[in-house]
């Protein structure tokens, strides 16, 4: 009996390992239905150090063969930075001191002073803006790489049209619909124990370098600053994007680069496209 259980466990582990290996890719080809030329899905990570950056000749070939490039937002919108900066300001009479206890606010201001962050940011910026700045502290390099920025440069060099799956206003609405209390709590937890968050982030980077979307997605599900807002941050947006992706892919070959966390899972972009009848397969 023991030998049978051991054999069964071995077979299950082997199946899991094989499944993960077969799906180890950041690049996925979309074909089938009325698509004349394949389009491509590529999973990005928004901040990563140069030594961890993954970009292969196959990825470059997929980009070169595409007519258009789509990001979550239209990255070459000249007003993009202005819109984001304005959108990250506290509005509607919000006061940052309402989001934190007196002790938490004190910790935040002290951390800001010690790390060269303007204290005014705490008083004027949405907690998500502070969270984004703290992510920079988790990196082992001072100047990270940007997939969106690099892919956009390559696209512009080839005179490719750049489009967005959603507007800046729609993405800002997503952030504003996330719980300020939850994000504010995560900000405080991060400054209390930055090392723990660095370890978790490095795990994500390691899985990203392995192109292991299933494991990367599982870590994302347990990330404290996302866990309570997965519908707002991931699932609802994935669903809205499908019609945009269909329109783009049916018109011409498009290289679609979005956060890797959007691709995997039952409600991920890959699964939703398959449910629509498209063939979506990893490109090795």
Automatic annotation (TrEMBL):
Coiled coil: none annotated. InterPro entries: TraB/PrgY/GumN_fam (IPR002816), YbaP-like (IPR047111). It holds the Pfam family TraB_PrgY_gumN. Residues 1-20 form the signal peptide. Keywords: Signal. It comes from the Bacteria. This is TraB/GumN family protein. It comes from Taibaiella lutea.
